[in-house]
Automatic annotation (TrEMBL):
<keyword id="KW-0813">Transport</keyword>
<dbReference type="InterPro" id="IPR015860">
    <property type="entry name" value="ABC_transpr_TagH-like"/>
</dbReference>
<dbReference type="InterPro" id="IPR003593">
    <property type="entry name" value="AAA+_ATPase"/>
</dbReference>
<dbReference type="Pfam" id="PF00005">
    <property type="entry name" value="ABC_tran"/>
</dbReference>
<comment type="similarity">
    <text>Belongs to the ABC transporter superfamily.</text>
</comment>
<dbReference type="InterPro" id="IPR050683">
    <property type="entry name" value="Bact_Polysacc_Export_ATP-bd"/>
</dbReference>
<keyword id="KW-0067">ATP-binding</keyword>
<feature type="domain" description="ABC transporter">
    <location>
        <begin position="37"/>
        <end position="257"/>
    </location>
</feature>
<dbReference type="GO" id="GO:0016887">
    <property type="term" value="F:ATP hydrolysis activity"/>
</dbReference>
<dbReference type="InterPro" id="IPR029439">
    <property type="entry name" value="Wzt_C"/>
</dbReference>
<dbReference type="InterPro" id="IPR003439">
    <property type="entry name" value="ABC_transporter-like_ATP-bd"/>
</dbReference>
<keyword id="KW-0547">Nucleotide-binding</keyword>
<protein>
    <submittedName>
        <fullName>O-antigen ABC transporter ATP-binding protein</fullName>
    </submittedName>
</protein>
<dbReference type="GO" id="GO:0016020">
    <property type="term" value="C:membrane"/>
</dbReference>
<dbReference type="Pfam" id="PF14524">
    <property type="entry name" value="Wzt_C"/>
</dbReference>
<dbReference type="InterPro" id="IPR017871">
    <property type="entry name" value="ABC_transporter-like_CS"/>
</dbReference>
<dbReference type="GO" id="GO:0140359">
    <property type="term" value="F:ABC-type transporter activity"/>
</dbReference>
């Protein structure tokens, strides 16, 4: 049953490495325990254990694309190598249903003394193709790689870009049932990347299951059906790409404890402040708008926002205006919107950073900026009770559809690490109507002239 539904099943996989301080200890562990065994003594170990992966489990459906994200050193590459069969797990098991093609490291599987053409035959044979099948596909592989006369040169003379072109061309053109890609496409230029993603789309439409590792969050959101977040060898969660990317950014720029669910921590912190009466007190008493409403009661507010931070500074209200109308339910394209945010400081914060982002409903970032990018001088300290107003105007040259605005207030600690105070992802919903006909996300107001 499972083999009919899933291309990959990873069950409680862990990987432990033995780490030695020096080569002498490695030699001692080879020799001395045998002597101690003969003498009936308890064996002494001379190594430390490093668990690169701990109890990881997930399943990849046939025809699905799953992204894997995590900080450097989190165990992503180790996991992919175990799935590809180049590493053996310490515990757990992996079930594979189909032929696997893996693009893990530049030049992996290549013989440096062979030409590119010879390496095509070598790699394809290892993947289970016959010579006749390779002969049938080799022209397509060479055309896709597009490395010119270098195809008949030894690969030791190839640049990193040429290596990845040839490696991807081999793996993708043989139409594997499972394709594993580990950051390799980051080496290629923009045109080659576009060609690669078009090919991945074709493979997916033909039923190939794809595991895709990338630090480029937009690629994860755009190309994956779901995503997995790994940190310090532990799989934290699997969810939609948009949710996972938000959690990944939190790990990069905020909380780092792998055992704490960020969302639970955030909700708990905010609920505590609500219980203390802070939010209601702020919305009722502090602002120019005397309607008694708060951020969460505005018409454009998205109740499914993702919010967290230490709340030393808090984004407590906002105003949205277009053409003199407050909080319009429909945003007319080609007309600017004006937004003003109100931030209340609960504690001392030096040099706050205010940021804003506009995303599609799928989570693709259209625009992102902050006060640091715009060289706004905020080199001063705000204290408890201080208020900051953040205002901006933005042209809405967008296609018809749904968009979300994210806002955040943060600062940096003494070590330069970003400390989030209040992050409100996808907190304001914009329903845009554009009466100009074009295809895409943004109207670039292109004028065509024909003679």
């Amino acid at each position: 049953m499972s083999s009919d539904l899933f291309a990959i099943e990873v069950n409680n996989v862990s990987k432990c490495y033995q780490v030695y301080d020096n080569p002498l200890k490695r030699l001692k562990e080879i020799i001395i325990p045998k002597k101690q065994q003969r003498e009936g003594k308890v064996e002494r170990l001379y190594h430390d254990e490093f668990w690169a992966l701990q109890d990881v489990s997930f399943r990849l459906k046939k025809g699905e694309t799953v992204g894997i994200v995590g900080k450097n050193g989190s165990g992503k590459s180790t996991l992919l190598q175990i799935i590809a069969g180049t590493l053996t797990p310490t515990t757990g098991s992996v079930k594979i249903a189909g032929r696997v093609a893996a693009l893990l490291e530049l030049g992996a599987g290549f013989n440096n003394d062979f030409t590119g053409r010879e390496n095509i035959y070598l790699n394809a044979v290892l993947l289970g193709l016959s010579k006749a099948e390779i002969d049938e596909k080799i022209d397509d592989i060479i055309s896709f790689a597009d490395i010119g006369h270098f195809i008949d040169s030894p690969v030791r003379s190839y640049s990193s870009g040429m290596l990845v072109r040839l490696a991807f061309a081999i793996q993708a053109q043989i139409e594997p049932e499972i394709l594993i890609v580990d950051e390799a496409l980051a080496v290629g230029d923009a045109r080659f990347q576009a060609k690669c993603f078009a090919r991945l789309k074709q493979l997916k439409e033909r039923g190939t299951s794809i595991l895709f590792v990338s630090h480029a969050t937009e690629q994860i959101v755009t190309h994956c059906d779901s995503a997995i977040l790994i940190n310090d060898g532990v799989m934290l969660m699997q969810d939609s790409p948009r949710v996972i990317v938000n959690k990944y950014l939190d790990l990069l720029f905020g909380k780092t404890d792998k055992k704490i669910e960020v969302k639970e921590e955030t909700e708990s912190s905010i609920e505590q402040h609500r219980a203390e009466g802070h939010l209601q007190d702020i919305s009722n008493n502090l602002f120019a708008f005397e309607d008694g409403l708060s951020f969460e009661q505005r018409p454009n507010y998205n109740p499914s926002e993702y919010r967290w931070g230490d709340l030393k500074a808090e984004i407590v209200d906002y105003q949205l205006i277009q053409d003199g109308k407050h909080y319009p339910l429909v945003i007319e394209s080609e007309h600017a919107i004006h937004l003003q945010f109100y931030i209340k400081f609960k504690d001392a914060v030096y040099r706050p950073i205010f940021g804003i982002a506009l995303k599609t409903k799928e989570g693709v970032t259209i625009y992102n900026t902050n006060s640091e990018y715009q060289d706004i001088d905020m080199s001063r300290q705000f204290n408890a009770g201080d208020i900051m107003h953040a205002s901006f105007s933005m042209p809405v040259n967008l296609a018809s559809g749904d968009y979300f605005i994210s806002v955040g207030i943060a600062s940096c600690d003494e070590g330069g690490a970003v400390v989030p105070h209040d992050r409100r992802y996808d907190s304001i919903h914009l329903s845009v109507v554009n009466r100009v006909q074009f295809i895409g996300l943004v109207n670039l107001d292109t004028h065509i002239s024909l003679k």
